[in-house]
Amino acid sequence: MGQLIEGVWKDEWYDTKAHGGEFKRDTAKFRNWVTADGAAGPTGEAGFAAESGRYHLFVSYACPWAHRTLIFRAIKGLADHIGVSVVHPDMLRDGWVFDGDFPGATGDQLFGSRFLREIYLRANPKASGRVTVPVLWDRERDTIVSNESADIIRMLNSAFDRITGNDDDYYPESLRARIGQLNERIYDSVNNGVYKAGFATSQQAYDRAVAPLFDSLEWIESLLADHRYLAGERLSEADWRLFTTVCRFDSVYHTHFKCNRKRIVDFPNLWGWARELYQWPGVAATVRPDHFVRHYYFSHDMINPHRILPIGPVEDWTLPHDRG
Ligand SMILES: N[C@@H](CCC(=O)N[C@@H](CS)C(=O)NCC(=O)O)C(=O)O
Protein backbone atom coordinates (compact mmCIF):
# COMPACT_ATOMS: atom_id res chain seq x y z
CA MET A 1 0.00 0.00 0.00
CA GLY A 2 1.56 3.26 -1.00
CA GLN A 3 1.57 6.02 -3.54
CA LEU A 4 3.61 7.66 -6.26
CA ILE A 5 5.46 10.88 -5.52
CA GLU A 6 6.90 12.48 -8.67
CA GLY A 7 7.15 9.05 -10.29
CA VAL A 8 8.70 7.30 -7.25
CA TRP A 9 6.82 4.66 -5.22
CA LYS A 10 6.50 5.36 -1.48
CA ASP A 11 5.06 2.65 0.74
CA GLU A 12 2.72 4.37 3.23
CA TRP A 13 -0.79 3.89 4.64
CA TYR A 14 -3.51 6.58 4.55
CA ASP A 15 -2.67 9.55 6.74
CA THR A 16 -5.67 9.72 9.07
CA LYS A 17 -3.75 11.65 11.77
CA ALA A 18 -3.95 14.82 9.71
CA HIS A 19 -7.78 14.69 9.92
CA GLY A 20 -8.56 13.67 13.53
CA GLY A 21 -8.59 9.94 12.73
CA GLU A 22 -10.75 10.42 9.64
CA PHE A 23 -10.15 8.73 6.27
CA LYS A 24 -10.16 11.20 3.34
CA ARG A 25 -10.38 9.75 -0.16
CA ASP A 26 -8.08 11.27 -2.79
CA THR A 27 -9.65 12.70 -5.93
CA ALA A 28 -8.85 10.94 -9.21
CA LYS A 29 -6.19 12.61 -11.41
CA PHE A 30 -6.98 11.46 -14.97
CA ARG A 31 -10.30 12.90 -16.02
CA ASN A 32 -10.64 12.68 -19.83
CA TRP A 33 -13.76 11.27 -21.48
CA VAL A 34 -14.37 8.81 -24.26
CA THR A 35 -17.18 10.25 -26.39
CA ALA A 36 -18.95 8.93 -29.48
CA ASP A 37 -17.13 11.33 -31.84
CA GLY A 38 -14.02 12.18 -29.81
CA ALA A 39 -15.19 15.66 -28.78
CA ALA A 40 -14.07 16.73 -25.32
CA GLY A 41 -16.28 15.60 -22.43
CA PRO A 42 -17.13 17.57 -19.29
CA THR A 43 -13.45 17.54 -18.20
CA GLY A 44 -10.07 16.89 -19.82
CA GLU A 45 -8.96 16.76 -23.45
CA ALA A 46 -10.66 15.87 -26.73
CA GLY A 47 -9.41 13.02 -28.88
CA PHE A 48 -10.80 9.88 -27.23
CA ALA A 49 -13.37 8.61 -29.73
CA ALA A 50 -15.31 5.44 -29.04
CA GLU A 51 -13.85 2.58 -31.10
CA SER A 52 -14.04 -1.17 -30.73
CA GLY A 53 -10.85 -2.66 -29.28
CA ARG A 54 -9.18 0.68 -28.54
CA TYR A 55 -9.82 0.87 -24.78
CA HIS A 56 -8.91 -1.44 -21.92
CA LEU A 57 -9.98 -1.58 -18.28
CA PHE A 58 -7.62 -2.37 -15.41
CA VAL A 59 -9.77 -3.50 -12.50
CA SER A 60 -9.94 -5.43 -9.27
CA TYR A 61 -12.91 -7.71 -8.58
CA ALA A 62 -12.47 -6.69 -4.95
CA CYS A 63 -13.00 -2.98 -5.45
CA PRO A 64 -16.53 -1.53 -5.41
CA TRP A 65 -15.50 1.42 -7.63
CA ALA A 66 -13.94 -0.83 -10.26
CA HIS A 67 -16.93 -3.15 -9.96
CA ARG A 68 -19.19 -0.39 -11.29
CA THR A 69 -17.23 -0.31 -14.53
CA LEU A 70 -17.36 -4.12 -14.91
CA ILE A 71 -21.12 -3.99 -14.48
CA PHE A 72 -21.54 -1.30 -17.15
CA ARG A 73 -19.23 -3.22 -19.49
CA ALA A 74 -21.50 -6.26 -19.00
CA ILE A 75 -24.93 -4.65 -19.16
CA LYS A 76 -24.05 -2.37 -22.10
CA GLY A 77 -22.80 -5.25 -24.25
CA LEU A 78 -19.20 -4.01 -24.28
CA ALA A 79 -17.38 -7.26 -23.47
CA ASP A 80 -16.28 -7.73 -27.10
CA HIS A 81 -15.17 -4.11 -27.43
CA ILE A 82 -13.31 -3.26 -24.22
CA GLY A 83 -10.68 -5.66 -22.85
CA VAL A 84 -10.01 -6.21 -19.13
CA SER A 85 -7.02 -6.97 -16.93
CA VAL A 86 -7.77 -8.07 -13.37
CA VAL A 87 -5.27 -7.52 -10.56
CA HIS A 88 -4.56 -9.95 -7.71
CA PRO A 89 -6.84 -9.36 -4.69
CA ASP A 90 -3.98 -8.74 -2.24
CA MET A 91 -2.97 -5.09 -2.05
CA LEU A 92 0.19 -4.93 0.08
CA ARG A 93 3.47 -2.96 0.03
CA ASP A 94 3.51 -2.64 -3.75
CA GLY A 95 -0.13 -1.66 -4.04
CA TRP A 96 -2.09 -3.52 -6.73
CA VAL A 97 -0.05 -6.21 -8.49
CA PHE A 98 -0.65 -8.34 -11.55
CA ASP A 99 0.29 -11.76 -10.10
CA GLY A 100 -1.91 -14.32 -11.81
CA ASP A 101 -1.85 -16.94 -9.05
CA PHE A 102 -5.45 -16.40 -7.92
CA PRO A 103 -8.52 -17.62 -9.84
CA GLY A 104 -9.79 -14.79 -12.04
CA ALA A 105 -6.64 -12.64 -11.76
CA THR A 106 -5.52 -12.25 -15.36
CA GLY A 107 -2.19 -10.45 -15.12
CA ASP A 108 -1.61 -7.35 -17.26
CA GLN A 109 -3.06 -8.34 -20.64
CA LEU A 110 -1.49 -5.39 -22.48
CA PHE A 111 2.11 -4.98 -21.31
CA GLY A 112 2.82 -7.85 -18.92
CA SER A 113 3.61 -5.39 -16.09
CA ARG A 114 4.12 -6.61 -12.51
CA PHE A 115 2.59 -3.62 -10.76
CA LEU A 116 -0.39 -1.39 -11.53
CA ARG A 117 1.82 1.63 -10.86
CA GLU A 118 3.68 0.81 -14.09
CA ILE A 119 0.50 1.66 -15.99
CA TYR A 120 0.32 5.05 -14.26
CA LEU A 121 4.02 5.69 -14.97
CA ARG A 122 3.55 4.76 -18.61
CA ALA A 123 0.92 7.50 -18.85
CA ASN A 124 2.99 9.96 -16.83
CA PRO A 125 6.55 9.14 -15.70
CA LYS A 126 6.28 11.86 -13.03
CA ALA A 127 2.83 10.81 -11.77
CA SER A 128 1.98 11.59 -8.15
CA GLY A 129 -0.88 10.23 -6.07
CA ARG A 130 -2.56 6.97 -5.24
CA VAL A 131 -2.49 4.15 -7.75
CA THR A 132 -6.12 3.13 -7.87
CA VAL A 133 -8.46 0.90 -9.86
CA PRO A 134 -10.34 1.26 -12.11
CA VAL A 135 -8.17 2.64 -14.91
CA LEU A 136 -9.50 3.15 -18.43
CA TRP A 137 -6.56 2.87 -20.82
CA ASP A 138 -6.33 4.10 -24.43
CA ARG A 139 -4.19 1.73 -26.52
CA GLU A 140 -3.98 4.23 -29.37
CA ARG A 141 -2.67 7.22 -27.44
CA ASP A 142 -0.88 4.98 -24.94
CA THR A 143 -2.28 6.79 -21.96
CA ILE A 144 -4.89 6.77 -19.21
CA VAL A 145 -8.23 8.22 -20.24
CA SER A 146 -9.68 8.21 -16.73
CA ASN A 147 -9.25 6.70 -13.29
CA GLU A 148 -12.61 7.92 -11.98
CA SER A 149 -15.29 5.25 -11.94
CA ALA A 150 -18.17 7.72 -11.70
CA ASP A 151 -17.07 9.22 -15.05
CA ILE A 152 -16.17 5.88 -16.67
CA ILE A 153 -19.65 4.43 -16.14
CA ARG A 154 -21.22 7.51 -17.76
CA MET A 155 -18.94 7.05 -20.77
CA LEU A 156 -19.83 3.35 -21.01
CA ASN A 157 -23.52 4.22 -20.63
CA SER A 158 -23.68 6.05 -23.96
CA ALA A 159 -20.44 6.64 -25.90
CA PHE A 160 -20.32 3.18 -27.54
CA ASP A 161 -24.03 2.86 -28.37
CA ARG A 162 -23.48 3.11 -32.12
CA ILE A 163 -20.89 0.33 -31.95
CA THR A 164 -22.87 -2.04 -29.75
CA GLY A 165 -26.41 -1.16 -30.86
CA ASN A 166 -27.28 -1.20 -27.14
CA ASP A 167 -29.03 2.05 -26.22
CA ASP A 168 -30.20 1.10 -22.72
CA ASP A 169 -29.88 4.34 -20.80
CA TYR A 170 -29.11 4.34 -17.08
CA TYR A 171 -28.68 8.12 -16.97
CA PRO A 172 -31.73 9.43 -18.80
CA GLU A 173 -32.17 13.18 -19.14
CA SER A 174 -35.45 13.13 -17.21
CA LEU A 175 -33.89 11.51 -14.13
CA ARG A 176 -30.54 13.31 -14.02
CA ALA A 177 -31.41 15.73 -11.23
CA ARG A 178 -32.85 12.92 -9.07
CA ILE A 179 -29.90 10.62 -9.79
CA GLY A 180 -27.54 13.45 -8.79
CA GLN A 181 -29.31 13.89 -5.43
CA LEU A 182 -29.29 10.16 -4.74
CA ASN A 183 -25.63 9.79 -5.71
CA GLU A 184 -24.56 12.65 -3.49
CA ARG A 185 -26.06 11.25 -0.32
CA ILE A 186 -25.26 7.62 -1.12
CA TYR A 187 -21.64 8.31 -2.10
CA ASP A 188 -20.86 10.20 1.06
CA SER A 189 -22.72 8.13 3.62
CA VAL A 190 -22.80 4.64 2.09
CA ASN A 191 -20.21 3.99 -0.67
CA ASN A 192 -17.53 6.01 1.05
CA GLY A 193 -19.26 5.83 4.45
CA VAL A 194 -18.26 2.19 4.98
CA TYR A 195 -14.62 3.13 4.33
CA LYS A 196 -14.83 6.11 6.68
CA ALA A 197 -16.12 3.78 9.42
CA GLY A 198 -13.65 1.01 8.64
CA PHE A 199 -10.51 3.12 8.31
CA ALA A 200 -11.32 5.44 11.24
CA THR A 201 -8.54 5.58 13.80
CA SER A 202 -10.55 7.40 16.46
CA GLN A 203 -13.91 6.57 18.09
CA GLN A 204 -15.27 9.97 17.09
CA ALA A 205 -14.39 9.50 13.42
CA TYR A 206 -16.04 6.05 13.46
CA ASP A 207 -19.17 7.41 15.17
CA ARG A 208 -19.38 10.27 12.67
CA ALA A 209 -19.38 7.79 9.78
CA VAL A 210 -21.46 4.91 11.06
CA ALA A 211 -24.55 6.86 12.20
CA PRO A 212 -25.22 8.49 8.78
CA LEU A 213 -24.47 5.15 7.09
CA PHE A 214 -27.33 3.39 8.88
CA ASP A 215 -29.60 6.44 8.61
CA SER A 216 -29.09 6.26 4.85
CA LEU A 217 -29.75 2.52 4.70
CA GLU A 218 -33.04 3.07 6.58
CA TRP A 219 -33.92 5.88 4.16
CA ILE A 220 -33.12 3.65 1.16
CA GLU A 221 -35.24 0.87 2.68
CA SER A 222 -38.20 3.26 2.79
CA LEU A 223 -37.60 4.48 -0.80
CA LEU A 224 -37.59 0.88 -1.98
CA ALA A 225 -40.87 0.22 -0.16
CA ASP A 226 -42.60 2.70 -2.49
CA HIS A 227 -40.62 2.22 -5.69
CA ARG A 228 -38.96 -0.68 -7.43
CA TYR A 229 -35.70 1.25 -7.89
CA LEU A 230 -34.00 4.21 -6.22
CA ALA A 231 -35.07 6.85 -8.76
CA GLY A 232 -38.57 5.41 -9.29
CA GLU A 233 -39.72 2.61 -11.59
CA ARG A 234 -36.68 2.73 -13.86
CA LEU A 235 -33.32 1.12 -13.08
CA SER A 236 -30.62 3.79 -13.15
CA GLU A 237 -26.97 4.53 -12.54
CA ALA A 238 -27.84 5.33 -8.91
CA ASP A 239 -28.90 1.71 -8.35
CA TRP A 240 -25.71 0.27 -9.82
CA ARG A 241 -23.54 2.62 -7.78
CA LEU A 242 -25.25 1.49 -4.58
CA PHE A 243 -25.26 -2.18 -5.55
CA THR A 244 -21.47 -2.62 -5.49
CA THR A 245 -21.36 -1.55 -1.83
CA VAL A 246 -24.45 -3.56 -0.91
CA CYS A 247 -23.16 -6.82 -2.41
CA ARG A 248 -20.01 -6.56 -0.23
CA PHE A 249 -21.81 -5.40 2.89
CA ASP A 250 -22.68 -8.52 4.85
CA SER A 251 -19.50 -10.43 4.06
CA VAL A 252 -17.03 -7.56 4.42
CA TYR A 253 -18.22 -4.21 5.75
CA HIS A 254 -20.47 -5.62 8.49
CA THR A 255 -17.58 -7.42 10.22
CA HIS A 256 -14.29 -6.09 8.89
CA PHE A 257 -15.34 -2.39 8.87
CA LYS A 258 -17.56 -2.71 12.00
CA CYS A 259 -20.70 -1.56 10.14
CA ASN A 260 -22.73 -3.97 12.20
CA ARG A 261 -25.90 -2.34 13.44
CA LYS A 262 -27.75 -4.43 10.82
CA ARG A 263 -27.01 -6.60 7.79
CA ILE A 264 -28.46 -6.12 4.31
CA VAL A 265 -30.60 -9.25 4.79
CA ASP A 266 -32.29 -7.44 7.71
CA PHE A 267 -33.77 -4.86 5.31
CA PRO A 268 -36.47 -6.75 3.35
CA ASN A 269 -36.84 -4.23 0.49
CA LEU A 270 -33.13 -3.58 0.10
CA TRP A 271 -32.35 -7.30 0.18
CA GLY A 272 -34.96 -8.04 -2.52
CA TRP A 273 -33.68 -5.11 -4.63
CA ALA A 274 -30.10 -6.37 -4.21
CA ARG A 275 -31.08 -9.86 -5.40
CA GLU A 276 -32.86 -8.40 -8.42
CA LEU A 277 -29.74 -6.48 -9.45
CA TYR A 278 -27.51 -9.50 -8.79
CA GLN A 279 -29.76 -11.56 -11.06
CA TRP A 280 -29.73 -8.93 -13.86
CA PRO A 281 -28.24 -10.58 -17.00
CA GLY A 282 -24.46 -10.47 -16.93
CA VAL A 283 -24.11 -9.10 -13.41
CA ALA A 284 -23.60 -12.22 -11.23
CA ALA A 285 -20.34 -13.03 -13.04
CA THR A 286 -18.93 -9.66 -11.98
CA VAL A 287 -19.62 -10.34 -8.27
CA ARG A 288 -16.59 -12.19 -6.91
CA PRO A 289 -16.77 -12.77 -3.13
CA ASP A 290 -13.58 -14.84 -3.41
CA HIS A 291 -11.75 -11.65 -4.44
CA PHE A 292 -13.42 -9.20 -2.11
CA VAL A 293 -13.32 -11.34 1.04
CA ARG A 294 -9.66 -12.12 0.42
CA HIS A 295 -8.76 -8.53 -0.45
CA TYR A 296 -10.18 -6.79 2.57
CA TYR A 297 -9.42 -9.31 5.31
CA PHE A 298 -5.94 -10.11 4.00
CA SER A 299 -4.72 -6.70 2.82
CA HIS A 300 -5.75 -4.58 5.82
CA ASP A 301 -3.55 -6.12 8.49
CA MET A 302 -3.87 -3.02 10.66
CA ILE A 303 -7.56 -3.97 11.04
CA ASN A 304 -7.17 -7.77 10.90
CA PRO A 305 -3.57 -8.48 12.00
CA HIS A 306 -3.78 -12.28 11.77
CA ARG A 307 -5.30 -12.14 8.30
CA ILE A 308 -7.90 -14.76 9.16
CA LEU A 309 -10.67 -14.99 6.56
CA PRO A 310 -14.16 -15.50 8.08
CA ILE A 311 -16.36 -18.51 7.30
CA GLY A 312 -19.63 -16.63 6.72
CA PRO A 313 -22.15 -15.40 6.09
CA VAL A 314 -23.99 -17.86 3.90
CA GLU A 315 -26.65 -16.04 1.88
CA ASP A 316 -28.55 -17.14 -1.21
CA TRP A 317 -28.44 -14.34 -3.79
CA THR A 318 -30.27 -16.52 -6.31
CA LEU A 319 -33.54 -16.69 -4.32
CA PRO A 320 -36.52 -15.13 -6.16
CA HIS A 321 -36.40 -11.38 -5.58
CA ASP A 322 -40.18 -10.83 -5.53
CA ARG A 323 -39.80 -7.24 -6.79
CA GLY A 324 -41.63 -7.52 -10.10
N1 LIG B 1 -12.29 7.83 -7.25
C1 LIG B 1 -11.90 6.54 -7.52
C2 LIG B 1 -11.59 5.74 -6.27
C3 LIG B 1 -11.00 4.41 -6.61
C4 LIG B 1 -10.35 3.73 -5.40
O1 LIG B 1 -10.16 4.35 -4.34
N2 LIG B 1 -10.00 2.45 -5.57
C5 LIG B 1 -9.33 1.73 -4.49
C6 LIG B 1 -9.72 0.27 -4.46
S1 LIG B 1 -11.31 -0.01 -3.80
C7 LIG B 1 -7.84 1.71 -4.74
O2 LIG B 1 -7.42 1.34 -5.82
N3 LIG B 1 -7.07 2.05 -3.72
C8 LIG B 1 -5.63 2.01 -3.77
C9 LIG B 1 -5.03 3.09 -2.91
O3 LIG B 1 -5.76 3.94 -2.39
O4 LIG B 1 -3.81 3.09 -2.80
C10 LIG B 1 -13.00 5.89 -8.35
O5 LIG B 1 -14.16 5.86 -7.93
O6 LIG B 1 -12.67 5.44 -9.43
From TrEMBL:
Domain GST C-terminal: 172-296
InterPro entries: Glutathione-S-Trfase_C-like, Glutathione-S-Trfase_C_sf, Glutathione_S-Trfase, Glutathione_S-Trfase_N, GST_Omega-like_C, GST_Omega/GSH, Thioredoxin-like_sf
One Pfam family recorded for the sequence: GST_C_2
Transmembrane segments: none
Protein name in UniProt: Glutathione S-transferase family protein
Species lineage: Bacteria, Pseudomonadati, Pseudomonadota, Alphaproteobacteria, Rhodobacterales
